[in-house]
Amino acid sequence: IPFMLATVWAAERYLDDERPAAAILIGICAGLAWVMRFQSITFGAGMGLALLVLSQRRMLAAFGFSAGFAIIVAAQGVLDLATWGSFLQSFRKYVDFNLIQDGAARFFGRSPWDFYLKRFELVLPAMLLYPAALMLLWSFWRRRELLLALPLVLFAALHFWTPHKEHRFLFPVY
Questions:
Q1: Looking at residue 155, what DSSP letter applies?
Q2: Shortest CA distance to 173 belongs to which of 119, 122, 116, 127?
Q3: Residue 124 zone, left/alpha/beta (φ > 0; ψ -120 to 50; rest)
Q4: 4-47 confidence digits (pLDDT tens)
Q5: What is the pTM of this model?
Q6: Do 27 and 66 form a contact (C-beta atoms < 8 A)?
Q7: End-to-end distance of the chain based on CA atoms, in angstroms?
Q8: Of the four, 61, 117, 121, 123, which is 20 to 30 A from 80 by CA?
Q9: Residue range 36-68, pLDDT digits in tens
Q10: What burial letters (b/e) apply to 126-155, b meaning 16+ CB within 10 Å?
Q11: Alpha-carbon torsion (74, 9, 64, 146), positive or negative
C-alpha cells in the first residue's frame, strides 16, 4: 500500500509541472508496488492510463512512466536471476500458479464474482461507502481524481474476476 500511495503522490506532483524526472518517479513507485504484490500491476496500468488522459505531454508521461517501471522490472529480474536462477522467475511462477494452474482457487477455495459485494458491510462500514462512490463519480467531472479512481477500479476489477477471494486482497482499495 505505501508504494501505491507514493505512486498517486508522484502522479499528483507530475501533473503540476510535468517534468521528465517526475514521470520516471511515477513508474518507479508503480514498479515497487508491483514488486511487493504482483496483482498491483493493474494499479500501475490504471495509473499509466490516467496519466495518458490527464497529461498535456502524453509522450513524456508514457515514456517516463514506462522507463521507471522498466527499471524496477529489470531489478526484479536480476534479483530473481541471482536467487531463482532465471530472469523474472518469481513473477512467472506466480502467474503459472495463480492463472495457468488455478492453484489458489484449487487449494484455498473459490468464491463467486460478487463475494466482496455480499460481504462488503463486514469489511468497510457503510458510512465510508458513500464518500467512496461520490469520489468515483466526481472523477468523471473533475478529471484529476481519475489518478486515484481508475487505478483502484482496475485493481478491484482484477480481484472480482479471480476465483479465489479474500478480504485482505482489497485492502488497498479501502
A1: H
A2: 116
A3: beta
A4: 889 988 888 888 888 889 999 999 999 999 999 898 888 888 88
A5: 0.79
A6: yes
A7: 10
A8: 61
A9: 989 888 888 888 888 888 888 888 889 999 999
A10: eeeeeeeeeebeebeeeeebbbbbbbbbbb
A11: positive
In 3D space, the residue among 82, 74, 54, 59 whose CA is nearest the CA of residue 142 turns out to be 54
Q: What mean pLDDT comes out for the span 153-174?
A: 77
H or E stretch covering 25: helix 20-36
- Report the candidate in 143, 21, 57 with the shortest Cα–Cα distance to residue 13: 21
Contact between 139 and 146 under an 8 Å Cβ cutoff? The reply is yes
| Number of Cβ within a 10 Å radius of residue 119 | 13
Taking the CA atoms of the chain, what radius of gyration do you get in angstroms?
Answer: 17
The DSSP 8-state label assigned to residue 165 in this structure reads: -
Tens of pLDDT, residues 147-162: 767 787 788 888 788 8
Task: Supply 53's cell numbers.
Answer: 488522459
Considering Cα of 4, then 24, then 27, then 138, what sign does the dihedral take?
Answer: positive
CA atoms lying within 13 Å on the CB side of residue 5: 5
The number of residues in the chain equals 174
C-alpha cell at 41: 500491476
Cα–Cα distance, 39 to 24 (Å, whole number): 21
* Cell numbers for 17: 509541472
